């Protein structure tokens, strides 16, 4: 989805009730929203900015750059926890 998209009622791609080619602020849901066959069709390229917490620990803190979402989640089929990465 295009994070800049809102329809004339203030709905983003997740909340917009229907797909449309009506443009608001030069962007329609058909162009901006994945569920309307628009949006970004490929993953946003990123690097993972990783920094150790302290030099004497194995803990690592990191986040994707650029940060392309407010939150990230996984579904029940994700195996990250199996590898200690959740």
List keywords for this structure.
5% helix, two-stranded antiparallel sheet, mainly beta, 1 helix, single chain
Explain the overall architecture:
The chain has one helix at residues 29-32, and strands spanning 47-52, 60-65. A two-stranded antiparallel ribbon has the order 1-2. It is mainly beta.
List the helices and strands and how they pair.
Elements: H1 29-32, E1 47-52, E2 60-65
Antiparallel strand pairs: 1-2
Number of strands: 2
- The coarse overall form would be elongated
Biggest sheet character: 2 strands, antiparallel
What is the straight-line distance between the termini? 24 Å
* Mean pLDDT across all amino acids: 80
Tell me the helix content.
Answer: under 10%
Show unreliable segments.
none
What string gives the helices and strands in order?
Answer: HEE
The tally of helices reads 1
The helix-and-strand class reads: mainly beta
Radius of gyration: 18 Å
Write out the strand line-up for the largest beta sheet, numbering strands in chain order. 1-2
Strand content: 5-15%
């Amino acid at each position: 989805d295009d994070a800049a998209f809102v329809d004339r009622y203030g709905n983003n791609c997740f909340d917009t009730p229907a797909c449309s080619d009506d443009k608001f602020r030069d962007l329609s849901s058909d162009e901006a929203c994945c569920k309307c066959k628009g949006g970004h069709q490929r993953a946003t390229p990123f690097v993972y900015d990783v920094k150790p917490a302290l030099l004497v620990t194995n803990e690592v803190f990191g986040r994707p750059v650029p940060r392309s979402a407010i939150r990230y989640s996984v579904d029940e089929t994700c195996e990250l926890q199996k590898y200690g990465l959740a």
